[in-house]
Amino acid sequence: MTTLLIIDMQVGMTWPKAEVRNNHNAEETIARLLMEWRHRKAPVVHVRHISRTPGSPFWPGQPGVEFQPALSPLACEHVVEKNVPDAFINTGLERWLHTRGESSIIIVGVSTNNSVESTARTAGNLGFKTFVVSDGTYAYAKTDFNSKERSAEDIHAMALANLDGEYASIISSVDALEVVLPLALSTQAPIG
């Protein structure tokens, strides 16, 4: 089976101005994937960032830390809380996946060059078959080390390029629904 891993789709991620990010339909794409995973009773993990920096929108108890309502976990879905970008660090995620015999994950969420990239690198290094959905992730504009302004699309594309073929396979949401999920379901061990 392939686990859908949804990273940091929290209320605080909706607060930056729209023009500083790319993939404005990413939330709809993630919701579509989530609906299909739920329909197929495939495993879903929701990752939430809990900041260790007082005043952060992701500090415990702040409204920004809550999941976006359209992407909130069901009671039966696993929730991982992290304090650093990588969802595997000090969270038990690796153990949770191994205990259930999960060997592949599809990653969606935010931001491509931060939590998504960090988590995908570790997943690949741990031996998980890792997929990152290009249209189910997004990034924010950023100034590079040489003080040059980079668009959100440039940041997104570079993060995906950093991962592709070495740590993960970069796929579209169409590929996730039409190729990866059906293949995972067809190779699932029978229950009983």
TrEMBL record:
Keyword Hydrolase: yes
Classification via Pfam families: Isochorismatase
Leader sequence segment: none
InterPro entries per the UniProt record, alphabetical: Isochorismatase-like_dom, Isochorismatase-like_hydrls, Isochorismatase-like_sf
Keywords: Hydrolase
Isochorismatase-like domain segment(s): 2-171
Keyword Hydrolase carried by entry: yes
Descriptive protein name: Isochorismatase family protein
The species this protein was found in: Duganella qianjiadongensis
